[in-house]
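User: C-alpha coordinates for this complex, please. No commentary.
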Amino acid sequence: MFSRLFDLPATKLLVEVDGRPVECTKGDTVAAVLLANTAFPYRRTVVSGAPRMPVCMMGVCFDCLVEIDGIANQQGCLRLVMPGMKIKRQTTVAQTLAPSVENL
Amino acid sequence: MVSVDVLVIGGGPAGMTAAAAAANAGLSVALVDERPDAGGQIYRGLESGPFRESSALGADYRKGAPIIERFRSASIATFFGAALWRIDTDQNGGRAAFSCSGLHMSISFRKLVAATGAMERPVPFAGWTLPGVMNLGAAQLLLKSSGLVPSGRVALLGNGPLLLLFAQQLTTAGVRIGAILDTAPPVNKVALGLKHVKAVLANRKKVLKGIGMLRAVRQSGIPIYKDVSDVMALGQDQLTELQFVSRDYPAKLELDLLLVHEGVIPNTHLSRALGCKHVWSDSQACFVPFTDSRGRSSNRNVFIIGDGASIRGADAAPASAEVAVSTILSDLDRANAKSRKVLACALHSLEKEEKFRPFLDALYPPRLAVTRIADETIICRCEEVPASALREAVRDGAIGPAQAKAFTRCGMGPCQGRMCALQVSQLLARETSASIGDVGSYNVRFPLKPITLADMAASAEPSVKDDSHAH
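Assistant:
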Protein backbone atom coordinates (compact mmCIF):
# COMPACT_ATOMS: atom_id res chain seq x y z
CA MET A 1 0.00 0.00 0.00
CA PHE A 2 2.94 2.32 0.77
CA SER A 3 6.60 2.10 -0.09
CA ARG A 4 9.63 4.18 0.77
CA LEU A 5 10.80 6.65 -1.83
CA PHE A 6 14.31 6.69 -0.37
CA ASP A 7 16.43 3.87 1.06
CA LEU A 8 16.63 3.91 4.85
CA PRO A 9 19.71 5.87 5.89
CA ALA A 10 22.73 4.15 7.42
CA THR A 11 21.56 5.35 10.83
CA LYS A 12 18.63 2.95 10.97
CA LEU A 13 16.50 2.61 14.02
CA LEU A 14 15.12 -0.65 15.36
CA VAL A 15 11.69 -1.03 16.95
CA GLU A 16 9.60 -4.05 17.87
CA VAL A 17 6.22 -4.62 16.23
CA ASP A 18 4.29 -7.46 17.89
CA GLY A 19 7.60 -8.89 19.07
CA ARG A 20 9.31 -8.80 15.64
CA PRO A 21 12.19 -6.41 14.95
CA VAL A 22 11.35 -3.76 12.32
CA GLU A 23 13.76 -1.27 10.74
CA CYS A 24 12.74 2.36 10.40
CA THR A 25 14.30 5.79 10.60
CA LYS A 26 14.37 8.78 12.94
CA GLY A 27 11.42 11.03 12.18
CA ASP A 28 9.03 8.19 11.31
CA THR A 29 5.79 8.09 13.26
CA VAL A 30 4.62 4.78 14.69
CA ALA A 31 1.69 4.80 12.23
CA ALA A 32 4.04 5.38 9.27
CA VAL A 33 6.18 2.41 10.30
CA LEU A 34 3.16 0.11 10.49
CA LEU A 35 1.88 1.33 7.11
CA ALA A 36 5.32 1.01 5.48
CA ASN A 37 5.56 -2.57 6.70
CA THR A 38 1.96 -3.45 5.76
CA ALA A 39 1.09 -4.80 9.17
CA PHE A 40 -2.43 -6.00 8.40
CA PRO A 41 -4.85 -5.20 9.77
CA TYR A 42 -3.47 -2.07 11.36
CA ARG A 43 -6.05 -2.57 14.12
CA ARG A 44 -9.50 -3.97 14.77
CA THR A 45 -12.36 -1.99 16.26
CA VAL A 46 -13.55 -2.88 19.74
CA VAL A 47 -17.20 -2.60 18.68
CA SER A 48 -17.38 -5.19 15.87
CA GLY A 49 -13.81 -6.32 15.30
CA ALA A 50 -13.78 -4.70 11.86
CA PRO A 51 -10.30 -4.11 10.38
CA ARG A 52 -9.17 -0.47 10.12
CA MET A 53 -6.22 1.66 9.18
CA PRO A 54 -5.35 5.30 9.87
CA VAL A 55 -7.42 7.83 7.95
CA CYS A 56 -6.12 11.30 8.77
CA MET A 57 -2.51 11.06 10.05
CA MET A 58 -3.10 14.35 11.90
CA GLY A 59 -4.56 13.37 15.23
CA VAL A 60 -8.25 13.63 14.33
CA CYS A 61 -9.60 10.16 13.42
CA PHE A 62 -8.20 7.94 16.21
CA ASP A 63 -8.15 5.03 13.76
CA CYS A 64 -4.37 4.73 14.32
CA LEU A 65 -4.64 3.61 17.95
CA VAL A 66 -1.87 1.22 19.04
CA GLU A 67 -0.22 -0.01 22.20
CA ILE A 68 3.17 1.65 22.74
CA ASP A 69 5.53 0.46 25.48
CA GLY A 70 2.70 -1.16 27.39
CA ILE A 71 0.20 1.70 27.24
CA ALA A 72 -2.81 1.02 25.02
CA ASN A 73 -4.80 3.42 22.81
CA GLN A 74 -1.95 5.74 21.79
CA GLN A 75 -2.35 7.80 18.62
CA GLY A 76 0.29 6.22 16.40
CA CYS A 77 0.28 9.16 13.98
CA LEU A 78 1.47 11.59 16.66
CA ARG A 79 4.25 9.48 18.19
CA LEU A 80 7.78 9.38 16.80
CA VAL A 81 9.58 6.04 16.91
CA MET A 82 12.30 5.64 19.53
CA PRO A 83 15.03 2.99 19.56
CA GLY A 84 13.70 -0.22 21.09
CA MET A 85 10.12 1.01 21.24
CA LYS A 86 7.68 -1.86 21.72
CA ILE A 87 4.66 -1.46 19.46
CA LYS A 88 1.69 -3.79 19.65
CA ARG A 89 -1.22 -3.75 17.25
CA GLN A 90 -4.63 -3.81 18.91
CA THR A 91 -6.19 -6.58 16.85
CA THR A 92 -7.88 -8.59 19.58
CA VAL A 93 -11.64 -8.37 19.38
CA ALA A 94 -13.01 -7.26 22.75
CA GLN A 95 -16.07 -9.54 22.62
CA THR A 96 -13.94 -12.68 22.53
CA LEU A 97 -12.20 -11.65 25.76
CA ALA A 98 -15.08 -10.23 27.77
CA PRO A 99 -17.29 -12.73 29.61
CA SER A 100 -20.72 -12.77 28.01
CA VAL A 101 -23.62 -11.46 30.08
CA GLU A 102 -25.03 -14.98 30.49
CA ASN A 103 -21.85 -16.17 32.19
CA LEU A 104 -21.84 -13.45 34.84
CA MET B 1 2.43 27.08 38.15
CA VAL B 2 4.08 28.60 35.09
CA SER B 3 2.45 31.82 34.00
CA VAL B 4 2.70 33.52 30.58
CA ASP B 5 1.17 36.51 28.83
CA VAL B 6 0.25 34.50 25.73
CA LEU B 7 -0.35 30.79 25.31
CA VAL B 8 -0.46 29.60 21.69
CA ILE B 9 -2.06 26.28 20.79
CA GLY B 10 -0.74 24.88 17.52
CA GLY B 11 2.63 25.15 15.78
CA GLY B 12 1.62 25.66 12.16
CA PRO B 13 2.24 28.89 10.19
CA ALA B 14 -0.37 30.81 12.22
CA GLY B 15 0.73 29.58 15.65
CA MET B 16 4.47 29.93 14.96
CA THR B 17 3.99 33.49 13.68
CA ALA B 18 1.80 34.49 16.61
CA ALA B 19 4.27 33.08 19.14
CA ALA B 20 7.26 34.75 17.48
CA ALA B 21 5.50 38.11 17.07
CA ALA B 22 4.33 38.15 20.70
CA ALA B 23 7.75 37.08 22.03
CA ASN B 24 9.62 39.61 19.91
CA ALA B 25 7.31 42.33 21.25
CA GLY B 26 8.46 41.46 24.77
CA LEU B 27 5.59 39.28 25.94
CA SER B 28 6.18 35.97 27.70
CA VAL B 29 4.97 33.19 25.41
CA ALA B 30 4.45 29.44 25.48
CA LEU B 31 3.40 27.25 22.57
CA VAL B 32 1.83 23.80 22.82
CA ASP B 33 1.40 21.35 19.92
CA GLU B 34 0.47 17.68 19.83
CA ARG B 35 2.83 16.98 16.92
CA PRO B 36 6.48 16.17 17.51
CA ASP B 37 7.85 19.17 15.62
CA ALA B 38 7.03 22.61 14.26
CA GLY B 39 5.38 23.31 10.91
CA GLY B 40 1.80 22.16 11.37
CA GLN B 41 0.39 19.99 8.59
CA ILE B 42 1.28 22.29 5.70
CA TYR B 43 4.99 22.43 6.59
CA ARG B 44 5.16 18.97 8.17
CA GLY B 45 8.66 17.54 7.92
CA LEU B 46 10.21 20.83 6.85
CA GLU B 47 12.25 20.97 10.07
CA SER B 48 13.67 17.46 9.96
CA GLY B 49 11.90 15.41 7.27
CA PRO B 50 13.30 13.94 4.05
CA PHE B 51 12.43 17.04 1.97
CA ARG B 52 13.89 19.64 4.38
CA GLU B 53 16.54 20.65 1.84
CA SER B 54 14.74 19.62 -1.34
CA SER B 55 12.55 21.54 -3.77
CA ALA B 56 10.78 18.37 -4.94
CA LEU B 57 7.54 19.24 -3.16
CA GLY B 58 7.31 22.65 -4.82
CA ALA B 59 8.15 26.26 -3.98
CA ASP B 60 5.19 26.77 -1.63
CA TYR B 61 6.50 24.15 0.80
CA ARG B 62 9.74 26.16 1.13
CA LYS B 63 7.76 29.23 2.23
CA GLY B 64 7.59 27.64 5.68
CA ALA B 65 11.36 27.77 6.22
CA PRO B 66 11.63 31.47 7.20
CA ILE B 67 8.52 31.14 9.40
CA ILE B 68 10.08 28.21 11.27
CA GLU B 69 13.41 30.04 11.53
CA ARG B 70 11.81 33.17 13.00
CA PHE B 71 9.86 31.00 15.44
CA ARG B 72 12.90 28.98 16.53
CA SER B 73 15.04 32.07 17.11
CA ALA B 74 12.44 33.81 19.30
CA SER B 75 12.30 33.37 23.07
CA ILE B 76 9.37 30.97 23.45
CA ALA B 77 8.72 28.07 25.83
CA THR B 78 7.75 25.27 23.43
CA PHE B 79 6.00 22.01 24.23
CA PHE B 80 5.81 19.68 21.24
CA GLY B 81 4.33 16.20 21.47
CA ALA B 82 2.01 17.49 24.17
CA ALA B 83 -1.42 16.09 24.97
CA LEU B 84 -3.47 19.17 25.78
CA TRP B 85 -6.55 17.96 27.59
CA ARG B 86 -8.11 20.89 29.39
CA ILE B 87 -8.34 24.69 29.30
CA ASP B 88 -10.35 26.80 31.71
CA THR B 89 -10.90 30.50 31.12
CA ASP B 90 -11.97 33.37 33.36
CA GLN B 91 -12.12 37.15 32.96
CA ASN B 92 -8.36 37.53 33.51
CA GLY B 93 -7.24 34.77 31.14
CA GLY B 94 -7.15 31.13 32.01
CA ARG B 95 -5.20 27.96 32.64
CA ALA B 96 -4.25 25.04 30.42
CA ALA B 97 -3.42 21.48 31.50
CA PHE B 98 -1.39 19.11 29.35
CA SER B 99 1.10 16.29 29.61
CA CYS B 100 4.35 16.36 27.69
CA SER B 101 7.24 13.85 27.69
CA GLY B 102 5.75 12.16 30.75
CA LEU B 103 5.49 15.43 32.68
CA HIS B 104 2.22 16.94 33.82
CA MET B 105 2.10 20.63 33.07
CA SER B 106 -0.16 23.49 33.96
CA ILE B 107 0.24 26.96 32.46
CA SER B 108 -1.79 30.03 33.25
CA PHE B 109 -2.18 32.73 30.60
CA ARG B 110 -3.64 36.18 30.06
CA LYS B 111 -4.45 35.64 26.38
CA LEU B 112 -5.02 32.41 24.50
CA VAL B 113 -4.28 32.12 20.79
CA ALA B 114 -5.90 29.03 19.24
CA ALA B 115 -4.16 28.12 16.00
CA THR B 116 -5.57 24.62 15.70
CA GLY B 117 -5.60 24.58 11.91
CA ALA B 118 -7.73 22.61 9.52
CA MET B 119 -8.74 19.00 9.15
CA GLU B 120 -9.84 17.25 5.99
CA ARG B 121 -13.59 17.23 5.51
CA PRO B 122 -14.81 13.72 6.42
CA VAL B 123 -16.39 12.08 3.34
CA PRO B 124 -18.58 9.10 4.31
CA PHE B 125 -19.72 6.69 1.59
CA ALA B 126 -20.45 2.97 1.50
CA GLY B 127 -17.26 1.14 2.48
CA TRP B 128 -15.26 4.20 3.60
CA THR B 129 -14.20 2.40 6.78
CA LEU B 130 -12.35 -0.35 4.85
CA PRO B 131 -8.56 -0.43 5.16
CA GLY B 132 -7.29 0.98 1.87
CA VAL B 133 -9.51 4.07 2.06
CA MET B 134 -7.59 7.02 3.45
CA ASN B 135 -7.65 10.80 3.36
CA LEU B 136 -5.50 12.20 0.57
CA GLY B 137 -3.90 14.72 2.91
CA ALA B 138 -2.91 11.84 5.19
CA ALA B 139 -0.98 10.23 2.34
CA GLN B 140 0.67 13.57 1.63
CA LEU B 141 1.75 13.82 5.28
CA LEU B 142 3.35 10.37 4.97
CA LEU B 143 5.29 11.69 1.98
CA LYS B 144 6.41 14.87 3.76
CA SER B 145 7.45 13.27 7.03
CA SER B 146 8.68 9.81 6.01
CA GLY B 147 9.10 9.83 2.22
CA LEU B 148 6.37 7.18 1.93
CA VAL B 149 4.50 7.00 -1.37
CA PRO B 150 1.36 5.07 -2.34
CA SER B 151 2.01 1.80 -4.14
CA GLY B 152 -0.17 -0.73 -5.94
CA ARG B 153 -3.37 0.30 -7.68
CA VAL B 154 -4.01 3.85 -6.47
CA ALA B 155 -6.82 6.30 -7.23
CA LEU B 156 -7.50 9.85 -6.04
CA LEU B 157 -11.16 10.71 -5.33
CA GLY B 158 -12.63 14.18 -4.75
CA ASN B 159 -11.54 17.64 -5.80
CA GLY B 160 -9.67 20.73 -4.74
CA PRO B 161 -6.23 22.32 -4.91
CA LEU B 162 -4.62 19.78 -2.56
CA LEU B 163 -5.70 16.89 -4.80
CA LEU B 164 -4.10 18.54 -7.82
CA LEU B 165 -0.94 19.42 -5.89
CA PHE B 166 -0.54 15.88 -4.55
CA ALA B 167 -1.14 14.38 -8.01
CA GLN B 168 1.65 16.62 -9.29
CA GLN B 169 3.98 15.78 -6.39
CA LEU B 170 3.45 12.03 -6.88
CA THR B 171 3.98 12.28 -10.63
CA THR B 172 7.22 14.20 -10.02
CA ALA B 173 8.30 11.45 -7.61
CA GLY B 174 7.67 8.86 -10.32
CA VAL B 175 4.61 7.31 -8.66
CA ARG B 176 1.94 5.92 -10.97
CA ILE B 177 -1.61 7.02 -10.16
CA GLY B 178 -4.21 4.69 -11.67
CA ALA B 179 -7.02 7.23 -11.93
CA ILE B 180 -8.37 10.55 -10.72
CA LEU B 181 -12.08 10.54 -9.86
CA ASP B 182 -13.19 14.16 -9.95
CA THR B 183 -16.30 14.85 -7.86
CA ALA B 184 -16.52 18.57 -8.70
CA PRO B 185 -19.78 19.33 -10.44
CA PRO B 186 -19.12 20.57 -13.99
CA VAL B 187 -18.61 24.33 -13.90
CA ASN B 188 -17.50 26.82 -16.50
CA LYS B 189 -14.16 27.87 -15.01
CA VAL B 190 -13.85 30.91 -17.29
CA ALA B 191 -17.32 32.20 -16.37
CA LEU B 192 -16.55 31.65 -12.69
CA GLY B 193 -13.22 33.47 -13.11
CA LEU B 194 -15.00 36.41 -14.71
CA LYS B 195 -17.53 36.50 -11.87
CA HIS B 196 -14.63 36.74 -9.39
CA VAL B 197 -12.47 38.80 -11.73
CA LYS B 198 -11.18 41.22 -9.05
CA ALA B 199 -10.06 38.37 -6.77
CA VAL B 200 -8.48 36.54 -9.71
CA LEU B 201 -6.52 39.60 -10.85
CA ALA B 202 -5.36 40.38 -7.30
CA ASN B 203 -4.12 36.77 -6.94
CA ARG B 204 -2.64 36.15 -10.42
CA LYS B 205 0.23 34.07 -9.01
CA LYS B 206 -2.12 31.60 -7.34
CA VAL B 207 -4.32 31.34 -10.44
CA LEU B 208 -1.29 30.66 -12.63
CA LYS B 209 -0.09 28.02 -10.19
CA GLY B 210 -3.53 26.40 -10.34
CA ILE B 211 -3.59 26.43 -14.12
CA GLY B 212 -0.10 24.92 -14.09
CA MET B 213 -1.24 22.11 -11.78
CA LEU B 214 -4.31 21.40 -13.95
CA ARG B 215 -2.10 21.26 -17.03
CA ALA B 216 0.49 19.02 -15.35
CA VAL B 217 -2.23 16.58 -14.29
CA ARG B 218 -3.77 16.58 -17.77
CA GLN B 219 -0.37 16.00 -19.42
CA SER B 220 0.58 13.22 -16.99
CA GLY B 221 -1.77 10.87 -18.85
CA ILE B 222 -3.57 9.79 -15.66
CA PRO B 223 -7.12 8.70 -16.64
CA ILE B 224 -9.57 11.25 -15.27
CA TYR B 225 -13.20 10.38 -14.55
CA LYS B 226 -15.31 13.54 -14.43
CA ASP B 227 -18.52 14.34 -12.55
CA VAL B 228 -18.16 11.36 -10.18
CA SER B 229 -20.94 10.42 -7.73
CA ASP B 230 -22.54 7.36 -6.07
CA VAL B 231 -19.25 5.96 -4.81
CA MET B 232 -19.11 2.53 -3.15
CA ALA B 233 -15.92 0.89 -1.83
CA LEU B 234 -16.00 -2.90 -1.84
CA GLY B 235 -13.81 -5.57 -0.27
CA GLN B 236 -13.87 -8.29 2.36
CA ASP B 237 -11.20 -7.18 4.81
CA GLN B 238 -9.75 -4.39 2.70
CA LEU B 239 -10.51 -2.32 -0.35
CA THR B 240 -10.40 -4.31 -3.62
CA GLU B 241 -12.88 -2.52 -5.86
CA LEU B 242 -14.53 0.86 -6.26
CA GLN B 243 -17.87 1.28 -7.99
CA PHE B 244 -19.06 4.74 -9.00
CA VAL B 245 -20.98 6.78 -11.52
CA SER B 246 -19.18 9.13 -13.88
CA ARG B 247 -21.21 11.43 -16.14
CA ASP B 248 -24.27 9.23 -15.56
CA TYR B 249 -22.44 6.04 -16.57
CA PRO B 250 -21.65 3.31 -14.02
CA ALA B 251 -17.97 2.42 -13.77
CA LYS B 252 -15.68 0.34 -11.57
CA LEU B 253 -11.98 0.08 -10.78
CA GLU B 254 -9.89 -2.56 -9.02
CA LEU B 255 -7.96 -0.74 -6.30
CA ASP B 256 -5.58 -1.21 -3.36
CA LEU B 257 -5.60 2.38 -2.13
CA LEU B 258 -8.21 5.12 -2.51
CA LEU B 259 -7.20 8.61 -1.39
CA VAL B 260 -10.18 10.84 -0.67
CA HIS B 261 -10.28 14.62 -0.46
CA GLU B 262 -13.10 17.15 -0.59
CA GLY B 263 -11.36 20.15 0.90
CA VAL B 264 -10.60 21.11 4.48
CA ILE B 265 -12.64 22.57 7.34
CA PRO B 266 -11.56 24.35 10.54
CA ASN B 267 -10.70 21.99 13.39
CA THR B 268 -13.06 23.47 15.98
CA HIS B 269 -12.70 20.84 18.69
CA LEU B 270 -10.84 23.16 21.09
CA SER B 271 -12.86 26.31 20.35
CA ARG B 272 -16.07 24.33 20.97
CA ALA B 273 -14.77 22.93 24.24
CA LEU B 274 -13.92 26.51 25.28
CA GLY B 275 -17.56 27.44 24.71
CA CYS B 276 -16.78 29.94 21.94
CA LYS B 277 -19.67 30.88 19.69
CA HIS B 278 -19.73 29.14 16.28
CA VAL B 279 -21.63 30.04 13.14
CA TRP B 280 -22.47 28.19 9.94
CA SER B 281 -20.59 29.28 6.82
CA ASP B 282 -22.61 28.65 3.65
CA SER B 283 -19.72 29.29 1.29
CA GLN B 284 -17.38 26.85 3.10
CA ALA B 285 -20.17 24.41 4.04
CA CYS B 286 -18.95 24.04 7.64
CA PHE B 287 -19.15 25.59 11.09
CA VAL B 288 -16.56 28.25 11.88
CA PRO B 289 -15.88 29.91 15.23
CA PHE B 290 -17.19 33.46 15.38
CA THR B 291 -14.29 35.92 15.24
CA ASP B 292 -14.20 39.68 14.72
CA SER B 293 -11.91 41.31 12.16
CA ARG B 294 -8.99 41.05 14.66
CA GLY B 295 -9.41 37.33 15.33
CA ARG B 296 -11.08 37.80 18.70
CA SER B 297 -13.63 35.08 19.53
CA SER B 298 -16.78 35.47 21.62
CA ASN B 299 -14.44 35.10 24.63
CA ARG B 300 -12.47 38.36 24.83
CA ASN B 301 -9.28 36.62 25.98
CA VAL B 302 -9.39 33.95 23.27
CA PHE B 303 -8.15 34.68 19.75
CA ILE B 304 -8.63 32.17 16.92
CA ILE B 305 -6.35 32.47 13.91
CA GLY B 306 -5.27 30.65 10.75
CA ASP B 307 -7.39 27.92 9.18
CA GLY B 308 -8.85 27.12 12.61
CA ALA B 309 -10.85 30.35 12.27
CA SER B 310 -11.93 29.86 8.65
CA ILE B 311 -10.26 28.29 5.65
CA ARG B 312 -8.08 30.99 4.11
CA GLY B 313 -4.90 29.05 3.42
CA ALA B 314 -1.25 29.04 4.46
CA ASP B 315 -0.49 32.51 3.11
CA ALA B 316 -3.26 34.10 5.17
CA ALA B 317 -2.27 32.29 8.36
CA PRO B 318 0.77 34.43 9.32
CA ALA B 319 -1.18 37.62 8.51
CA SER B 320 -4.06 36.55 10.76
CA ALA B 321 -1.49 35.88 13.51
CA GLU B 322 0.06 39.35 13.18
CA VAL B 323 -3.41 40.93 13.36
CA ALA B 324 -4.29 39.02 16.54
CA VAL B 325 -0.96 39.73 18.26
CA SER B 326 -1.14 43.47 17.45
CA THR B 327 -4.59 43.48 19.03
CA ILE B 328 -3.33 41.60 22.08
CA LEU B 329 -0.54 44.18 22.43
CA SER B 330 -3.07 46.98 22.52
CA ASP B 331 -5.25 44.97 24.97
CA LEU B 332 -2.23 44.77 27.27
CA ASP B 333 -1.29 48.46 26.74
CA ARG B 334 1.85 47.46 24.85
CA ALA B 335 0.88 48.80 21.41
CA ASN B 336 3.36 51.14 19.73
CA ALA B 337 4.03 52.69 16.32
CA LYS B 338 5.64 49.46 15.09
CA SER B 339 2.77 47.21 16.14
CA ARG B 340 0.25 49.56 14.55
CA LYS B 341 2.23 49.48 11.29
CA VAL B 342 2.38 45.67 11.39
CA LEU B 343 -1.37 45.57 12.00
CA ALA B 344 -2.17 47.75 8.98
CA CYS B 345 0.10 45.71 6.76
CA ALA B 346 -1.26 42.36 7.99
CA LEU B 347 -4.88 43.48 7.60
CA HIS B 348 -4.09 44.40 4.00
CA SER B 349 -2.61 41.01 3.07
CA LEU B 350 -5.34 39.16 4.94
CA GLU B 351 -7.94 41.04 2.91
CA LYS B 352 -6.25 40.00 -0.33
CA GLU B 353 -6.27 36.32 0.68
CA GLU B 354 -9.86 36.48 1.92
CA LYS B 355 -11.00 37.91 -1.42
CA PHE B 356 -9.60 34.91 -3.28
CA ARG B 357 -11.25 32.24 -1.14
CA PRO B 358 -14.87 32.56 -2.47
CA PHE B 359 -13.53 31.84 -5.98
CA LEU B 360 -11.80 28.65 -4.78
CA ASP B 361 -14.85 27.63 -2.71
CA ALA B 362 -17.08 27.99 -5.77
CA LEU B 363 -14.62 26.16 -8.02
CA TYR B 364 -14.20 23.16 -5.67
CA PRO B 365 -17.38 22.56 -3.67
CA PRO B 366 -17.76 19.32 -1.69
CA ARG B 367 -20.07 16.82 -3.33
CA LEU B 368 -19.97 13.34 -1.76
CA ALA B 369 -19.70 14.91 1.70
CA VAL B 370 -22.89 16.94 1.26
CA THR B 371 -25.14 14.41 -0.48
CA ARG B 372 -27.64 12.32 1.47
CA ILE B 373 -25.80 9.48 3.21
CA ALA B 374 -27.25 6.01 2.50
CA ASP B 375 -28.90 4.29 5.49
CA GLU B 376 -26.32 1.52 5.84
CA THR B 377 -23.27 3.81 5.57
CA ILE B 378 -21.42 4.28 8.86
CA ILE B 379 -21.27 7.91 10.03
CA CYS B 380 -19.59 7.44 13.43
CA ARG B 381 -16.47 5.39 12.68
CA CYS B 382 -15.63 4.85 16.37
CA GLU B 383 -18.98 3.50 17.57
CA GLU B 384 -19.90 2.18 14.10
CA VAL B 385 -23.23 4.00 13.98
CA PRO B 386 -24.91 3.93 10.55
CA ALA B 387 -27.01 6.76 9.12
CA SER B 388 -30.14 4.63 9.63
CA ALA B 389 -29.66 4.69 13.44
CA LEU B 390 -29.50 8.48 13.40
CA ARG B 391 -32.63 8.69 11.24
CA GLU B 392 -34.36 6.38 13.71
CA ALA B 393 -33.23 8.64 16.57
CA VAL B 394 -34.82 11.60 14.77
CA ARG B 395 -38.07 9.63 14.43
CA ASP B 396 -37.83 8.89 18.16
CA GLY B 397 -37.64 12.60 18.93
CA ALA B 398 -33.96 13.55 18.87
CA ILE B 399 -33.92 17.08 17.50
CA GLY B 400 -30.33 18.07 18.17
CA PRO B 401 -26.82 16.59 18.04
CA ALA B 402 -26.71 16.10 21.81
CA GLN B 403 -29.86 13.96 21.82
CA ALA B 404 -28.76 12.04 18.73
CA LYS B 405 -25.53 11.26 20.58
CA ALA B 406 -27.35 10.07 23.69
CA PHE B 407 -29.77 7.94 21.63
CA THR B 408 -27.20 6.23 19.39
CA ARG B 409 -23.67 6.62 20.93
CA CYS B 410 -22.75 8.47 17.73
CA GLY B 411 -19.77 10.67 18.63
CA MET B 412 -18.98 8.91 21.93
CA GLY B 413 -15.93 6.94 20.77
CA PRO B 414 -12.23 7.79 21.04
CA CYS B 415 -12.34 10.60 18.44
CA GLN B 416 -15.03 12.32 20.54
CA GLY B 417 -17.06 13.30 17.50
CA ARG B 418 -14.26 14.96 15.57
CA MET B 419 -14.98 12.80 12.50
CA CYS B 420 -18.80 12.66 12.59
CA ALA B 421 -19.87 16.05 14.01
CA LEU B 422 -20.41 17.80 10.68
CA GLN B 423 -22.21 14.83 9.12
CA VAL B 424 -24.52 14.48 12.13
CA SER B 425 -25.49 18.18 11.92
CA GLN B 426 -26.06 17.86 8.17
CA LEU B 427 -28.20 14.74 8.59
CA LEU B 428 -30.30 16.25 11.40
CA ALA B 429 -30.86 19.45 9.42
CA ARG B 430 -32.00 17.44 6.41
CA GLU B 431 -34.25 15.08 8.37
CA THR B 432 -35.89 17.80 10.48
CA SER B 433 -35.99 20.43 7.70
CA ALA B 434 -34.23 22.83 10.05
CA SER B 435 -31.39 25.19 9.10
CA ILE B 436 -28.04 23.66 9.97
CA GLY B 437 -27.03 26.81 11.82
CA ASP B 438 -29.98 26.26 14.15
CA VAL B 439 -29.22 22.54 14.53
CA GLY B 440 -25.69 23.40 15.66
CA SER B 441 -23.06 20.86 16.59
CA TYR B 442 -21.97 18.66 19.49
CA ASN B 443 -20.99 20.17 22.83
CA VAL B 444 -17.36 19.19 23.29
CA ARG B 445 -16.27 18.20 26.80
CA PHE B 446 -12.89 17.95 28.48
CA PRO B 447 -10.66 15.96 28.54
CA LEU B 448 -9.80 16.62 24.88
CA LYS B 449 -7.41 13.67 24.75
CA PRO B 450 -7.43 10.22 26.30
CA ILE B 451 -5.23 10.65 29.38
CA THR B 452 -4.45 8.58 32.43
CA LEU B 453 -5.94 9.32 35.85
CA ALA B 454 -2.37 9.95 37.01
CA ASP B 455 -2.08 12.79 34.45
CA MET B 456 -5.32 14.27 35.67
CA ALA B 457 -4.40 14.01 39.35
CA ALA B 458 -0.94 15.48 38.82
CA SER B 459 -2.31 18.59 37.15
CA ALA B 460 -4.44 19.55 40.14
CA GLU B 461 -3.61 22.77 41.99
CA PRO B 462 -1.49 22.18 45.13
CA SER B 463 -4.20 23.88 47.19
CA VAL B 464 -6.65 21.27 45.98
CA LYS B 465 -4.25 18.42 46.71
CA ASP B 466 -3.57 18.99 50.43
CA ASP B 467 -7.11 18.64 51.59
CA SER B 468 -8.50 17.60 54.98
CA HIS B 469 -7.96 13.89 54.30
CA ALA B 470 -4.31 14.39 55.27
CA HIS B 471 -5.21 14.78 58.92
